[in-house]
UniProtKB/TrEMBL annotation:
It is an enzyme of class 1 (oxidoreductase). Residues 1-174 form the FAD-binding PCMH-type domain. It comes from bioreactor metagenome. Keywords: FAD, Flavoprotein, Oxidoreductase. This is Nicotinate dehydrogenase FAD-subunit. InterPro entries: Diverse_Substr_Oxidored, FAD-bd_PCMH, FAD-bd_PCMH-like_sf, FAD-bd_PCMH_sub1, FAD-bd_PCMH_sub2, Mopterin_DH_FAD-bd. GO terms for molecular function: FAD binding; nicotinate dehydrogenase activity.
């Protein structure tokens, strides 16, 4: 339970979500987008954040869809880690999702929540970065589709009021050889856990590392 009053918005389209955010901002109110909510609820409970409003985006259809065509696997931003893992569309990403927290939380944490949240590990970023995934963003100025490598540092760089709507994974990556290594004193904990995924495309090997630095870094061979 969140220990303070707040405005609750539940849009059914992306445009409604953006309009709600800007209306609240114009009234001097702070607002957060909410999908899985595990991090938001936890931070509110301990008093780390106290937004004036929460915009629940789970009813926006395109944010919860997964679909593949000849060139890409498209994953909606509000798909949960468990949905991605169980779909088995992209085994490397599914493996990374399955090593985050426990099953209960995997059913709540969303892909965008892991990528954009304040918790530093963002394990799903590594498979996406090493396969040259792209990201669709939607904001007041409309839609942007950008390579993930161009907007991801310690987290995805968003304009005010903007949100992630989907990630797009090239079809060549779905069955590419890979390795995913996680080192931890306690496998249930992600604290100081190096993660090292590897994909291959046309003979190029890419290794990415996460826990040694706030920003993922890679080596190509």
């Amino acid at each position: 339970m969140i220990p303070f009053d707040f405005i609750y918005c539940r849009p059914t389209t992306l445009q409604e979500a953006i309009e709600a955010w800007w209306k609240l901002k114009s009234e001097g109110k702070s607002a957060l987008y909410y999908a899985g909510g595990s991090e938001t609820i936890t931070l509110c409970r301990v008093g780390a954040i106290s937004p004036d409003a929460v915009i629940d985006i789970k009813l926006i259809p395109e944010l919860t869809k997964m679909a593949a065509d000849r060139t890409f696997l498209h994953i909606g931003a509000a798909c949960t880690l468990n949905q991605i893992k169980e779909s088995n569309h992209f085994k490397l990403l599914g493996l990374a999702c399955g090593r985050i927290a426990d099953h209960t939380n995997q059913c709540r944490i969303t892909l965008a929540g892991n990528l954009c949240g304040t918790i530093i590990y963002r394990e799903t970023s590594l498979p996406l970065l090493c396969c040259d995934a792209s990201v669709t963003l939607f904001g007041p100025d409309g839609e942007r589709i950008l390579p993930m490598q161009s907007i991801f540092g310690e987290q995805i760089k968003l304009f005010p009021g903007e949100l992630v709507t989907a990630v797009h994974i090239p079809s060549w990556a779905l069955d590419a050889p890979y390795a995913h290594i996680k080192k931890a004193a306690n496998e249930k904990s992600t604290i100081r856990s190096p993660v090292s995924p590897r994909c291959k495309k046309t003979g190029l090997s890419v290794r990415l590392f996460r826990a040694f630095a706030p920003t993922p870094f890679g080596v190509k061979k």
